[in-house]
Amino acid sequence: MLPKTYKEARMASIEVLFNFFKAVPSTYYNETEKELSDGSTQIKKAETQTIKKELDKKLTGFDYIEISGIYLSAFDQKVFRAIIQCVNKQEEQSYSSNLVNAKSLNEEYIPVKKEIYSNKAVIDINEFYKIFNPNAKHRASTELYKKIVKSLDRLAHVILSFYTKDKRNIITAPLLIFSRIDNQLFLQLHPAILSFQYESKNENILKLKQSYYSLNNNEYYTLENDLQRLLYSKIQYKFASMGSSNKQCSFEFENLKSQLFLPVKFSKNRYKQNSKLRKAISELNSNKNCSYDLKIEGSKILYLIVCKS
Known about the structure:
Blueprint: H1 4-18, E1 21-22, E2 32-35, E3 41-44, E4 48-54, H2 57-60, E5 64-70, E6 72-73, H3 74-88, E7 93-94, E8 115-116, E9 120-124, H4 125-132, H5 142-156, E10 159-163, E11 170-174, E12 176-181, E13 184-189, H6 217-220, H7 226-240, E14 248-252, H8 253-260, H9 267-286, E15 293-298, E16 303-308
Parallel strand pairs: 1-6
Antiparallel strand pairs: 2-3, 4-5, 5-10, 7-8, 9-13, 10-11, 12-13, 14-16, 15-16
Helix pairs in contact: 1-7, 3-5, 3-7, 7-9
């Protein structure tokens, strides 16, 4: 059983991170250029956001978690899960100061003597593709490899931070640091994403190697479309923080929709999003590969999605 101190910190990070995964249109990440009257060019890029969540300092050692970056697509979620699966397979390794490339490290939480586990992975890009798409019968195309690298770049521009109110103790680092050399990918996740041991002056805050949630990729990769996968992930992360064997949770329909889609202005587009989400719920519920039982309850104005594991 995971220590509660460890679980809360990691589940907080994955719950906050999920708000960045969206069923965004393929054109969302395109840059737009506009020539100004003075001859200069104005470039507008994808919208950025910052999400902040309060933590219990007695349990986690930090007051807040904050994450900043651009919205991530359903495809990025798929790449992210493949990265975690790669990193979880790595052997344990001793800590050295260059293992964690962070913007700001505090010696209270990242001391010299520390054991760090599965924070990095080196993998052949073809092997990564097999994890990314285990059902594929052929090697990926050059176009798909380029798409994966662009997704890695978006993940690398997301910043995750844990800090105290006075900001004296802070861990701020990119969600992902990666490089591609020849046919190999070098991947390094934010230290708070995976489990490893923190030794502080006060107590051991995080202990023992173990995934912060249970990834059932066998089910995930058999789902038929990206929206189903996003919905499945949201439920999976939610249940990961529950201890009982008989699990049940509910989501407000509009709140869940806001976590799966980019905001839209017109009622016609909102109707389309509602229809897509209801369809995804129905499809996921009838999918033999999914272990969750979903249903919609409530009026036309407010829906609750009730899930049982």
